[in-house]
Amino acid sequence: MPVSKTLLHQKSIKGVPSGRPTWLKVDLSALRHNYLQARNASAATVETWPVIKADGYGVGAVAVARTLIRAGADGFCVAMVEEAEALRIAGIDAPLVVMSSITAASAERIVAAKAHAFISDIGVAKALAHHGLESHPTPIYLKVNTGMGRLGVEPGEVDDLLKELARYPSLRVMGLVSHLACADQPEHPENGRQIALFQALVGSSTVQQLTAGRHSLANSGGTVKIPTAHHAWTRPGIMLYGASPFFPHSSAHIDGLQEVITWHSHILKQRTVPAGTSLGYGHSQTTACVSRLGVIPVGYADGYRRRLGNGGGAVLIAGQKAPLLGRVCMDMITVDLTHLPHITPDEPVLLLGNAFNIEDWAGTLQTIPYEILCQIGDRVPRVYGDSPSDS
Ligand SMILES: Cc1ncc(COP(=O)(O)O)c(C=O)c1O
């Protein structure tokens, strides 16, 4: 796995990173605020384990973990053993649980990383038992398919599997886990169905006898709006990073979440061109009048989405919108500055944030904020700071 972007790029927010003038500013105080929204949504006895898979949804898992450990997070959820290992290498010693990509071949590494594991397959559990130590049993959670239909054993298999798992002293079965399919729509009847099924499972005498009762069901949506999904610990993800778990039915602003990331750049070159000038690859747009153009060093290789080209998107310069002209290239975009005559040669540019936040991008691009966050490329430095005004 490549070294985490967090390790490569952790810098003070005061300094603009060296190299290409484009960077993602991460507001750690907003991250803490959003974490506390999740934390305070459940009873004090319920633990909060932030989801920091995919390098903290692209924000930088190490910086997110360090910040949220100080804020009181009880542990963290990742998807893959490689992600747990990267966190351990960076010195994160908080509890980590690997939720999805676990195979028998990765079992030894899970044990070495002192990670917990979601189990959907008895073969994986046996491999973990083989590599584990009776003196320090590996904490595992039996994942049950209550409606998501991805991983997880079927509800009717739970009792037999728990009896089998109980035979391995190097494993400690902490509880049952499952995942809500429709938590972005709290009124959706599937939530009630999944919650009732999970409740019946955790209430069974076999589950009560053979697990430590550390059950978990809630993602961000469940954490915020469905208290009956809380159980022993919650797993909030997207809300921490400043997007509503109920998008597009709600927004971060309505949900009281703060903006965590803003994406910045500078104008690298300005030029004036006559009317009738065709621009960029494919000459996809032609100027209607004498036009002032600005070239900004960011492109689709950075996660700046190609569909924002040809006027599909805009950037914010000196507080005003400058629409994109022509196609988004791999490393550059061009914007129309004709209506902005007084800007300086290397004027700051806001690509994402404020008027163009991740929810706006997701709406324009007909996708979800998760995808916007995860696709901001590794070559965009992440710059961490504590306050939006601290720039
Ligand atoms: C198993 C599991 N739990 C929790 C989460 C967090 O979900 P969200 O980001 O919607 O809060 C995810 C994210 O996909 C997940 O896969």
Give a nutshell description of this structure.
This protein has 2 domains: 28-241, TIM Barrel (Alpha-Beta Barrel), CATH 3.20.20; 261-385, Lyase, Ornithine Decarboxylase, Chain A, domain 1, CATH 2.40.37. 27% of the residues lie in helices and 20% in strands. It has helices spanning 5-9, 28-39, 53-57, 61-70, 81-89, 107-112, 122-131, 158-165, 189-202, 205-210, 220-225, 358-364, 369-374; strands at 22-27, 47-48, 76-80, 96-101, 116-119, 138-143, 171-177, 233-234, 261-266, 269-273, 278-279, 285-286, 291-296, 314-317, 320-323, 333-336, 348-352, 382-385.
How much is the radius of gyration in Å? 24 Å
Which second-level CATH architecture of the largest domain applies? Alpha-Beta Barrel
Number of domain units? 2
The structure class reads alpha/beta
Q: How many strands, which pairing sense, and closed or not: the largest β-sheet? A: 6 strands, mixed
Average pLDDT, rounded to a whole number, is: 92
pLDDT < 50 stretches:
1-15
* Each distinct ligand: pyridoxal-5'-phosphate
CATH fold descriptor of the largest domain:
TIM Barrel
User: What proportion of the residues form beta strands (DSSP E)?
Assistant: 15-25%
Number of helices: 13
Level of helix content?
Answer: 25-40%
Span between termini: 32 Å
Question: What is the CATH first-level class name of the largest domain?
Answer: Alpha Beta
The counted number of beta strands is 18
* Side-by-side strand order of the widest sheet: 15-14-17-9-1-18
- Assembly status: single chain
CATH superfamily of the largest domain: Alanine racemase
Global outline:
elongated
